TrEMBL record:
Subcellular compartments: Membrane
Gene Ontology molecular function terms on file: transmembrane transporter activity
This protein's UniProt keywords: Membrane, Transmembrane, Transmembrane helix
Predominant cellular place of this UniProt entry's protein: membrane
The name this protein goes by in its record: Major facilitator superfamily (MFS) profile domain-containing protein
Domain Major facilitator superfamily (MFS) profile: 1-264
Pfam families noted in UniProt: MFS_1
Annotated membrane topology: Multi-pass membrane protein
Region (Disordered): 1-30
InterPro entries: MFS, MFS_dom, MFS_trans_sf
Compositionally biased region (Polar residues): 1-19
GO cellular component, as recorded: plasma membrane
Length: 264
């Protein structure tokens, strides 16, 4: 619900330049792509529960900073922090279901997650509109604080998953730093090129062409790093060797494109 509620908040924030100075910010800034880091790989090292609680905490902090933003730059930075937390929550919920339930039972729980997503996406704009018109756009972010806080407490008490208890130093050594930085850089540049192209800059402009080209170059470097260099790759390429895995991942890719396209 946060993603659809915040669309209303972003529009209201832009419509109230007296609250967020300076007022002459780029209109396209509120749709900047988020950065989804390798929380799944971190959860393999330090455990699902620890990383899930951490990502909810990051989302909580990001929401608080968004609600208290004093200018558009602070709001955009806080949205990036919130996006990192949200990306971990969305991903790790599915990972935890895979750990907790058998293949036969997982479909039911994945269906529940999808139902919650659908309902929240439908009521999100309504809630955002009511909060923005009756109170303030800031409450579109503040509403996340009690919900996230309750979620942290419940998960801490109820969620029972294996914790590998990896020491911090050993865990940091196991992180695929080169792969993580490369996938982040490649994704951000390529998506930023797609976002700016035809909106704030012509498709043929040097900025857009360079963003798209260097995004693809980094993607190629990522493949080399993951196949020849990384000891514990963030994207194990052997996942794509099996035809069943490849088909499932391809289906998930296009399904995600279709299900989230409405937000853009």
């Amino acid at each position: 619900m946060a993603s659809t509620t915040i669309e209303t908040a972003s529009a209201q924030a832009e419509a109230q330049p007296s609250e967020l100075n300076p007022p002459d910010q780029e209109k396209g800034g509120r749709n900047s792509p988020g950065i989804y880091t390798g929380q799944c790989c971190l959860s393999d090292i330090w455990g699902r529960k620890v990383i899930l609680l951490t990502t909810i905490g990051i989302f909580w902090i990001g929401s608080l900073l968004c609600g208290t933003s004093v200018n558009m730059g602070m709001l955009l930075g806080a949205r990036a922090i919130q996006g990192i937390g949200a990306g971990g929550v969305v991903t790790l919920v599915n990972v935890c279901i895979g750990d907790l339930f058998s293949v036969r039972e997982r479909g039911f729980y994945y269906g529940l997650v999808g139902a919650v997503w659908g309902i929240a996406s439908a009521i999100g704009p309504v809630v955002g509109g009511v909060l923005s018109s009756q109170a303030s756009w800031r409450w579109c972010f503040y509403i996340n604080l009690p919900i996230s806080g309750i979620g942290i407490v419940l998960l801490y008490v109820v969620l029972k998953l294996h914790n590998p208890r990896t020491p911090l130093k050993e865990g940091l050594k196991a992180v695929d730093w080169c792969g993580s930085l490369t996938v982040i850089g490649s994704t951000v540049m390529f998506l930023l090129g797609l976002e700016l192209g035809g909106v704030t800059h012509p498709w043929a402009s040097p900025l857009v062409i360079c963003l798209l080209a260097f995004g693809l170059v980094l993607a190629s470097i990522l493949v080399f790093i993951e196949s020849h260099y990384a000891k514990y790759p963030i994207i194990p390429l052997n996942l794509f060797a099996d035809s069943s895995n490849f088909g499932a991942l391809t289906t998930a890719f296009f399904h995600t494109m279709a299900s989230t396209s409405g937000s853009y």
